[in-house]
Amino acid sequence: MSQLLSSLRSSRTLLAGAFALGCAVTSLPAMAQQSDEFSWWQSIKDHASEIVDKGDDAIYVSGLAHHGRSTYTKEKLDQLNEHAWGLGYGKTMRNERGNDESLYGFVIKDSHRHPQIMAGYAYEWVYPIGRTPLEVGIGGTAMLMSRQDYFGGVPFPVPLPLASIGTKKAKVMFAYVPRFSSNKNSGDVLLVFGRIEM
Question: What is the per-residue burial (b if ≥16 Cβ within 10 Å, else e) of 171-187?
Answer without folding.
Answer: bebbbbbeeeeeeebee
